[in-house]
Amino acid sequence: MPAFSWSSRFRESQWRSLRKFILEERKDASSRYQVIEAERQRIGSVDILWGQTSEGDPTEQRLGFSLDEGTSLCKLVQVYVALGGNPFDISMFIGPESTTSSGGLSQRNVPHGGVLTIQEIKYAYDQGAVDRDGNFLKFRSSRYGGPIQARNEAQLADLIERFKKPYTKEIRYKRTRIEEQIIKLCDLREQLDQEVEDLIWSTYGDMAADVSWQDDRYSRGSTAASIVYALDSIFRIPDTVEVGKVPYDPTAKAGQPGAVNEEALANYPTMMNDLPEEENSNL
């Protein structure tokens, strides 16, 4: 079994082993953040400018986008444009991290929450829903006669494939490969952003001067320190003098700080004490 693969059923020695590992790694959070931030700056980001309805909801119309100058994403998009490509053709959600809104342009939300779903439709006002359709314009089968294959569709497919065939390599080189690289970089940027979020949760935002904790965004009870105290105080009786400290003392008498907290453990049947044979193992 891989190390630390357990989650809800574990012994005290397993918890203490994971606890030690995580707290040791937490010491390197600052240097880890600096490496991540350097990579984020190298990749850059994309912000999409969405149109808005009169109610303020974003439409599927993209009115513009911005890139960080000199970044890897910016250079790839410049190459794409130089080869005749339209950046709006790459992906509708190329910049999912956008957060601001102003002047009739929305950067806070994306159409339909960025989720492709099926919706019921009807073809007359006086009848109930009789068909299902996609919520995005591109995936609405009602635009081409319904989900069943339309007449002459196979013939059209043959014509288009014949039309493209002599230029397959050019399509691959001047469009597909660059699009793939751009999307991969955007995915990597999003993963790095999530890694920073996770570090903030763990360290209470103490890993760098330019990172701040936001109470309306993060939960204090989910920091590494809070989780350690919560689980330590279930296994062992907390210190009554030094608030926030849970001593570990196998020799402590029942009811004293550091002794097994039998009352708390009774509420968590999947958290177990170690048997003598298990005390030196994380298995």
Can you give keywords for this protein?
single chain; 283 residues; alpha+beta; 2 domains; two-stranded parallel sheet; two-stranded antiparallel sheet; 8 strands; 12% strand
Would you kindly provide a written description of the structure presented here, covering whatever features stand out?
The N and C termini lie close together (8 Å). Residues 98-108 have low confidence and may be disordered. This protein has seven helices and eight strands; from the N terminus they run E-H-H-E-E-H-E-E-E-E-H-H-H-H-E. Helix 1 runs antiparallel to helix 6 and helix 3 (72-82) packs antiparallel against helix 5 (168-203). The strands form four sheets. The chain has a two-stranded parallel ribbon. It folds into two domains: 10-38 and 219-278, no CATH class; 44-115 and 149-201, no CATH class. 37% of the residues lie in helices and 12% in strands. 11% of the residues are buried. With 283 residues, the protein is of the alpha+beta class. A hairpin with a 5-residue loop joins strand 2 and strand 3.
